[in-house]
Amino acid sequence: MSRVFQVGGRAIEASRIFCVGKNFRKHIKELGDEDSEQPVIFMKPVSCIVLPQEKIALPRHGTCLHHEVELVVLIGQGGSNISESAARSHIAGLSLGVDLTLRDVQTTLKKKGMPWEIAKAFDQSAPLGTFVPLGDSTDLDNISFSCEVSGVLRQEGNSGQMLYPIPYIIKYLSDIWELQPGDLIYTGTPSGVGPLVRGDTIKIAGSGIGEFNWEVF
Ligand code: ZN
User: Fold this and answer.
1) FRET pair for 127, CA 20 to 30 Å: which of 18, 110, 199, 202?
2) CATH number for the 4-216 domain, one of 3.90.850.10, 2.30.40.10, 3.40.50.300, 3.90.226.10?
3) Ligand 1 centre and the CA of 13: distance in Å?
4) What is the distance in A from the centroid of ligand 1 to the CA of 213?
């Protein structure tokens, strides 16, 4: 299924979803992991996207579905070998998303050294809000965002706490893949991840971005 985002008067069709793991130190600690010397990158198919008016169904191949609220970057102008100083001009807009993760499945895969796809890239694993255009005054290093589950605050973070800031992530990805308009980047989650159960509502909000809600059934 194609997904088209309206941002700044443009319609941009989703191309690929890149995700950054281990980008906030307190979250790395809560998982009992170590910092990595380079960004941890994985991908999800575009078919995983869940828009705000849609519902999240609990997957059946795991028992511990965790929320990870993340700032999401939409690439508007593609390119290879993009410098950190030029990275900003490649961004069309910002939103928030949830990198839904089957933590029990991921823990097993990590122990075995196996790929993470079935823990991270299953159907409906990428709830995603609507995009706001990147304004001249947007400070990429000072965007706060949060996640509430059924009225209880679970996660709070700020892009200034990222181990790999957004311009660096764009540079890093574009040295490996030629970025395309419509590429989405989930930029990593702060601490406070936790389980979702049937009947929960999830609300994510960010400064200058807005607020988005889903129900889990
Ligand atoms: Zn994540």
Assistant:
1) 110
2) 3.90.850.10
3) 22
4) 18
